[in-house]
Specification:
Layout (H helix, E strand, L loop, with lengths): L4 H7 L32 H28 L6 H22 L2 H6 L5 H14 L9 H29 L2 H5 L4 H16 L3 H9 L3 H29 L10 H10 L5 H12 L11 H10 L1 H13 L1
Length: 308
Amino acid sequence: MSNTPQARFDRAPQPIASEWTALKARKVSFAWEETPLHWLPGDPFTTHTINVLHLLLPAGERWFVHVYKQVLPYIEDEQLRADVIGFIGQEAMHSQAHDEVLPHLREQGLDPTPYTAQIDWFFEKLLGDRTLPPGKARKWWLMERIATIAAIEHYTAFLGDWVLNADELDRRGADPTMLDLLRWHGAEEVEHRSVAFDLFMHVDGSYARRVRTWGVAFAALVFLWQRGARFFMENDPTLVDGRATFKEFFAKGRQGVLPTTGAMVRSIPRYLNRAYHPSHEGSTAQAVAYLASSPAAVAAEAREKGAA
């Protein structure tokens, strides 16, 4: 039986065709002057748990882009190549948008530099390029990172789908600018949720590698996220003895302002199922509908048309 990259792609779990959409980077911008430190009123824990995105994503998505540029020569399917290029554009914009929140946090007395330095080391050194001889060793490390990105994207799409449906954030008066950033980003994660997995299946597709790298990605995300939440709570200048606990996380999930622990646990066997394909998760129609109404995305499109 053929084991070429294209043959593996043909045998991969099949996507739902109607969930595919052409990808484009939306050059959004956000004004943070009116956004309070606790953008979810009266709830610093939820605010800071979600704020960890601003710490993880700039470095993480720069890393995605760096790795994907290296894998472009391995892509033999032209539609997939176009999807990957669209993915790169969107991820670069995500990195920039979240990076621009950090000066606003510093202005409010919460300097994230000590933590972001650790995140930079994680992606640039631990998961970065290594001095390996050309050939199998170098390709092995590239495939490991491609598979790791596919696993991470399973969770970014999970979070994107969650925030698009997190009506409790609206009911509790979440800052509209922050909510638009989160939902614009979440909608694009849902929009491009299949690209990383399709790329992995195209260039490798090993089930053992999928399982192994999922374990690494999941453990790293949990570890880094709880460290980030603890960092924010302990360094928030408005809090005395601020703490981040798993008990509080469980409680906020039940209240609807964070994902529930049960939903996160149920997402694990779905990814590890051999028949898994990301197009069965979330809704492209919902994502595209939000992007058509997002204040930041609408403004970006207007600027683009005005410049044309």
